[in-house]
Amino acid sequence: MRRAGILMPITSLPSPYGIGTIGEAAREFVRFLHKAGQSYWQILPICPTSYGDSPYQSFSSYAGNPYMIDLDDLCEAGLLEKSDYENIDWGDNQEKADYGLLYKKRFSVLKKATKAAEEKYETLISEFRTENEKWLSDYALFMAIKDEQNGVSWLEWPEILRKRDNKALSVEREKLKDEIKFWECVQFLFFSQWKKIKAYANENGIKIIGDIPIYVSSDSADVWANPDQFQLDNNLIPISVAGCPPDGFSADGQLWGNPLFNWELMKEQNYSWWVDRIAYQTKIYDVLRIDHFRGFDAYYSIPYGEKTARNGEWKEGPGIDLFNVINEKLGELPIIAEDLGFLTDSVRQLLKDTGFPGMKVLEFAFDSRDTESGYLPHLYNKNCVVYAGTHDNDTILGWFDVISKEDAEYAKKYMRLSEAEGYHWGMMRTAWACIADTAIMQMQDILGLGKSARMNTPSTLSDKNWSWRCLPGAYNDTLAEVLHAEMKLYGRI
Fold this sequence. Notes:
By secondary structure, the protein is an alpha/beta fold. The protein has a single domain (about 5-490), classed as TIM Barrel (Alpha-Beta Barrel), CATH 3.20.20. Helix content is about 40%, strand content about 10%. It has helices at about 25-35, 70-75, 100-120, 120-130, 135-150, 160, 165-175, 175-205, 220-225, 265-270, 270-285, 320-330, 345-355, 360-365, 395-400, 405-415, 425-435, 445, 475-490; strands at about 5, 40, 205-210, 240-245, 255-260, 285-290, 300-305, 315, 335, 360, 385, 440. The strands form two sheets. Strands 9-6-3-2-1-12-11-10 form an eight-stranded parallel sheet. The protein has a four-stranded antiparallel sheet with strand order 5-4-7-8, with no helix packed on it. Helix 1 (about 25-35) packs across helix 19 and helix 3 (about 100-120) packs across helix 8 (about 175-205). It is globular.
């Protein structure tokens, strides 16, 4: 069935409080999607961000981001007064999220809300703690200790805490019980709001595509609480870390720094860690996009301490064995495989064996820096998801500014692009018209924005990354009508 959607990070939604949230702005966007004839809202990971503000480097792969909790909805629920947050300086740049400012000012407001919630929703919070005990207890303790340790990585904590000495952790749980309750309650507030926005989206015919990073952050509750699942030495230091080899876009490759999985142990345990993770994600999303799918076939292993990704090597991953177990335990799941990057015949076979739709990126099809083939629309099969670009790519207009003259001319000729229509509209039209079952466009491209609206430049640390925000009123009924007409024309509604 032919369908379409829009990639719009929650953090990018308009908001007067410094960052997009899952309140009225999210509901307004759902209504826009419905009017525009869209079927999907693709988002980025909703987990709490850590160093670098990347949603792909989180303190937990289970927890929700406290910044996304809507303050107006908390006020409406009687947990805050307007005066608790409306006069706070949340920054004066509506096009950019200031994570440093949010870190300084958000949590004092949430402390007031959680205090009220503990009284008003005592039973519901208790039920939430019980339902999510498998991850919530460790996460809340992790965050409480992290605050006590002035925010440093758990690898810098005292050894008895790093190595989870039972007696030491019991002391911490008693000493930090109020802080632990706070972090648990924050998650209760987040997921209470999340359940409502997901239900609202589904009621309006919109499915949410969630994003699951294959790896987890080194400085996370996931690694701290489950060190045996990762390639760590006796001092819990990573032996090797994740990344990608050099290519046409980066001479040094990409050094992500995430600890690699202990696939041998995971196999012995029938991949229970992964089954639990996927099962949880299916509860909060309608469709799952798994980032860096090729890492399940073979993963790029870089010795810990290297400054670049040049000296890594490919090692065998779990392959189809993992997905057979997941399918056996959880049934057939709606998963999109992010199969971009250095592909081999074995990666292609793994994708075929799973039956998951892969991804096609139009910018790659016309960029001579990309050495892969298969991104030209006439080479697609139906079982794929086409994008003009993703969060890791430049916007369409930004991309045209940096590619070679020859690449630009090829793209214009192939897609019959014209300045009169707008290169961005022509490129999106090509995606909507192609054979792919699903077409997802970035909101920045629908709005015709340039390079300043790029969401992320891989392997860089910059306050420009992950910070783009949509201005109030940027999307409206007129734009929705234009999109609806396009969807009807190309049979995507």
